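Attaching the record inline, Q. Sequence:
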Amino acid sequence: MAARQPRFNQKVLVDTTPLPESIPKVDEIGSSSAPLLSASYFIGARCKAFNDDFMVCKTEAHGTGEIDCLREGRKVTRCAASV
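Structure, as predicted:
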């Protein structure tokens, strides 16, 4: 057995800065990876157009897509939550 004791980080970092009004509000899915993986076929089929827009935005953003494409990402999350 290993002599090292495991260390866990119990701190949660939350950014309280509000998003701009141009980014649509959406609740997080709140699910673990197992249900999302089992529903991925249906989510992919229903949300293909939104996901394609997000991926095009990320490709065109050249490394800053996580910030520049928040609007498209929120649309993908909203569509996945509706499945």
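The chain is about 55% helix and 0% strand. Residues 50 and 75 are 6 Å apart (CA to CA).

More tomorrow.
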